[in-house]
Each structure stands twice: as structure tokens, then as C-alpha cells.
Design a protein that fits this description.
Length: 494
């Protein structure tokens, strides 16, 4: 897979070699080592990327630290214009980016196109928000004082992003950081670095100055620890597992970095008897099976009230049976491959555990072999007769399995939904407005979709409670994570 010539410094390389962006230069690793990038559908190598380490990470930190001195001093309008250029280039190259994402991540092409548009929406949103980082004038207690509050960028940002949304998880962090005047170092997931590098090339074309946005690939532990230890890095923003998030908190404590953590989820769905069964089934399907169930906000635990359960189960099963499993580039594919063997083994283990405990497979329930493909494909699977003791109700699945638990009393459903260390997203289906508001307020989750399986949007806050993380991304709230509030007290001379 050949990289497009979108940058100024196209150096001699093999067609399959991709370089890192540090201080406006596209460079290999100092060691010359590379890692392969595999297509999860075929398990074939499609490209290589540099294996960078401490030396290259320090170079990126130095570049970002130096660039911050000038980027933070540019006007909000200048930064906004550059971000809008980046947005336009993202949409202009939407097809190429989507094909690249499907090749390295596996999600269906149309879904990948949707992610590119979603990712670009954060850039355009924060291009506008750059001009709205307002301050305050506070009435002083004496006549000879004036009291001002201003917002200033925190400094160099380290953004560590996951493989399941290779574009959107970058722009959701980088766009508000750049808009506020920060500079960035992005460490993309090892499985999906190509989308990040392509986006960086477009950012360079858009006019983002050298050193303002740097992208490095390599061993996560080495790059991460270097970023966490360096006092020039003012903030770390991370999307990934709770276990790694806790490590980042500990590692960042020595230099008192600001941190934003979007961590694991285990999203419950509550379907009440008075819900529109068709709407509930359709929205649950959209939530559960997007990206083959490999999202942190997808429906993981489906609690359905006794009266509506037969109809809901029938409708959901019928819709699931129409989902097509296969290569993401094949027209009509709804479910692509799981990212790797570990992901497949976890799904298999959870389904086997549920069945051994008395759960029933209504549809699906096994791995799928796609002719000419060696990737890890699994059928959309509907389980009934599930209870709280089963592994699938305790752990995030990250796969295309929908377990249904029947309940009678809504109080019991609320209790079970909240009985988790995670608190990222939740979903509720009901036609009763009073009940919707009351239950939504009691659910211990940062996001509640009421009759809505896809609540995420650039203009809305995204983030969780409990062990699902700290901080918010998106909306006016997201840019606040990248600024310091400074109070200036001015004494007037007589």
C-alpha cells in the first residue's frame, strides 16, 4: 500500500515504508527498525512503520516544546483558519482515508467513511471554539483594583490513541489542543498507525507549522514512559484500557501533569415495557454491532423488561440475522474482522462460559471462515437466559455478542446497570418522559442515550465516571481540558 505524496519532504523510501513526523521532517527510526502493519482481514502485511524509542520521543518533545513558544502566540483566528484547512483536506481525502482505515483496522468501508466525517467534525468544531476561549472581568472589592481571568494553553500535549477508532480518537484530542494553542505528540496504536500518519500529512498541507503536530510509532512502553517522565510534557490524554490508564496516572504524578483518561466501558441497555420495540431493537443493533462490537460505548449488557422481551428479542434477532460478515471492502459487509487472535479468544471464552451456565444461543455463536481470508471473523450472536454471574456480564466483550437479561422491576434493572466499576455509556428505551428523566439521572454513567443508540457528537461531552476515566472530550467542555485559568489582579496607581 503506497503512501500518497502529501508532504514536502518525500524522501527516498520503498513504497511500503512509512515515516514518522517529527519537527516537520518525515524520518525513519534511528535504529532503522520497522514494525509491520497487518490487514486484520487477511493477516497480510500492508506496510511498515518505524520502531522509534526514547531518542526519537525526546526529539519530538523538544520540537513540540520549541514550537509551543510561537504557536501559542498566534491569534485564535490564525489557528482557526489552519484547522478549517485541515478539515477541508480530511473531507477531500475521505475516500482514501476510509480505504486505508479499512485496510489496517478492518471496519467496513462505509463505516470507515463515517468515522472520517466524524473525526473531521471535531476539527471544524474546535476551529470555531478557538475563537470562543473567553475570559472574565471580576468586580473588584476596592476602587483601585481590576481583576481579570484569562485562559492560556497548558503546553505540550501527549496523545495516546487506540486502534478501534484510528481517526476520531486523534482529532477529538488534537483538534481542541491545537485550537487552544497547545502543541502535540501523537502515539497511535501499533495496529493502526497509517491513518494517523496520513492525517498528519494532511495537517502539514493545511499549514500546521513544523513541530506543532508530531506523530511517532514504536514500542508503547518506551515512548509512553519517556513522555510521562519529561516535565516539558504538560498533559497526557489517553483512550484505552483502565489498567493502562491507572499506570498513566501513577507515572504522571511525579511531574504533576494534567491528565484526561477515556477508559473501559461496559454499557448497559435498559428496555422498558412501554418502549417502541422496533426503535429499541434498531438502536441497540446500531450500538452493539458498530465496528464488530469493538467500541467502548457499545451495548454490552441488555436488560429487557418481561412484557416486551419476546418482541424485542424477535426483532433484534431478525435484524442480526441480516448482518453480513466479511472483508470490510466487500460491498454489503456489516461486520468486519476482530482485531486479533486475543480479541477472538475473549469472545469465544465469554460465549462458552455463558452457554455452560445455561444461556441459550438464539443466533450466531461461532467463528466464521471467509474464503481467501485468514482474519478473525465471528458471527453476530444473540444470547438469552443470561444472568449476572456469567463472565460476559462482568467483562467488556469487545465483540459482536448481545446478551439479554430479563427483568420485571425497573428498580432491579437500574441496580444491575449500576453494579459495575465502569461508568462510560448507558442506554434507556421508554416512551414515558417522566420515567426517562428520572432513570437517566440515576444511571451512574457519563453518557445516557435515551431512545438513542448513537449519542456521540462533536458538540457534546464524551467521558465517563468511576473507573471509566477522568475529564471530557467534545463540545465546549473538551477544550477546557487544554487550558490553564490565570487570574490577574491589577492595582491601579493614584
Amino acid at each position: 500500500m503506497t503512501t500518497p505524496s502529501l508532504h514536502r519532504n518525500e524522501k527516498h523510501r520503498n513504497d511500503e515504508d512509512w515515516f514518522n513526523l517529527i519537527n516537520g521532517e518525515w524520518i525513519p527510526s534511528g535504529s532503522g527498525k520497522t514494525n509491520p502493519v497487518l490487514n486484520p482481514s487477511t493477516l497480510k502485511e500492508i506496510a511498515t512503520v518505524p520502531v522509534c524509542g526514547k531518542e526519537e520521543t525526546l526529539q519530538a518533545i523538544s520540537a513540540a516544546h520549541q514550537a509551543f513558544q510561537t504557536w501559542s502566540a498566534t491569534s485564535a483566528y490564525e489557528r482557526s483558519a489552519i484547522l478549517m484547512n485541515w478539515y477541508s483536506l480530511m473531507m477531500e481525502h475521505q475516500d482514501e482515508l476510509a480505504k486505508l482505515m479499512t485496510a489496517e483496522q478492518g471496519k467496513p468501508y462505509e463505516e470507515a467513511k463515517g468515522e472520517i466525517a466524524y473525526a473531521a467534525s471535531f476539527i471544524s468544531w474546535y476551529a470555531e471554539e478557538a475563537k470562543r476561549l473567553y475570559g472574565d472581568i471580576i468586580p473588584a472589592s476596592t476602587a483601585n483594583k481590576r481583576m481579570f481571568v484569562i485562559r492560556q494553553p497548558v503546553g505540550v500535549i501527549a496523545a495516546i490513541t487506540p486502534w478501534n477508532f484510528p481517526a476520531a480518537m486523534i482529532t477529538r484530542k488534537v483538534a481542541p489542543a491545537l485550537a487552544s494553542g497547545c502543541t502535540c505528540i501523537v502515539k497511535p496504536a501499533g495496529q493502526t498507525p497509517l491513518t494517523a500518519l496520513y492525517m498528519a500529512k494532511l495537517a502539514e498541507e493545511a499549514g500546521v507549522p513544523a513541530g506543532v503536530l508530531n506523530v511517532i510509532t514504536g514500542k508503547s512502553s518506551v515512548i509512553g514512559d519517556t513522555l510521562f517522565e519529561d516535565s516539558r510534557v504538560a498533559k497526557v490524554t489517553f483512550t484505552g484500557s483502565t489498567e493502562v490508564g491507572k499506570h498513566i496516572m501513577r507515572a504522571s504524578a511525579a511531574t504533576m501533569k494534567k491528565i484526561s483518561l477515556e477508559l473501559g466501558g461496559h454499557a448497559p441497555v435498559i428496555v422498558l415495557d412501554d418502549a417502541d420495540a422496533q426503535l429499541a431493537a434498531e438502536q441497540t443493533l446500531l450500538s452493539k454491532f458498530r465496528n464488530a462490537g469493538q467500541t467502548c460505548v457499545c451495548a454490552n449488557r441488555i436488560y429487557v423488561q418481561k412484557g416486551i422481551r419476546p418482541e424485542f428479542e424477535r426483532l433484534l434477532g431478525e435484524k442480526m440475522a441480516r448482518l453480513q460478515v466479511g472483508d470490510g471492502m466487500k460491498p454489503g459487509t456489516s461486520i468486519g474482522p476482530l482485531i486479533d487472535e486475543d480479541g477472538m479468544n475473549k469472545v469465544i471464552r465469554q460465549v462458552e462460559n455463558a452457554v455452560s451456565g445455561g444461556a441459550k444461543i438464539v443466533t450466531g455463536g461461532k467463528a466464521v471462515k471467509i474464503p481467501g481470508h485468514d482474519g478473525y471473523f465471528y458471527e453476530p450472536t444473540l444470547l438469552t437466559g443470561v444472568d449476572a454471574s456469567m463472565e460476559i456480564m462482568q467483562e467488556e466483550t469487545f465483540g459482536p455478542v448481545a446478551p439479554i437479561v430479563e427483568f420485571e422491576d425497573p428498580e432491579d434493572a437500574i441496580r444491575q446497570a449500576n453494579d459495575s466499576p465502569f461508568g462510560l455509556a448507558s442506554y434507556l428505551f421508554t416512551s414515558n418522559l417522566n420515567q426517562a428523566i428520572r432513570i437517566a439521572e440515576r444511571l451512574q454513567f457519563g453518557i445516557v442515550g435515551v431512545n438513542d443508540g448513537l449519542p456521540s457528537a462533536a458538540q457534546a461531552p464524551f467521558g465517563g465516571m468511576k473507573e471509566s476515566g477522568l475529564g471530557r472530550e467534545g463540545g465546549k467542555y473538551g477544550i477546557e481540558e487544554y487550558v490553564e485559568i490565570k487570574y490577574i489582579s491589577l492595582g491601579l496607581q493614584s
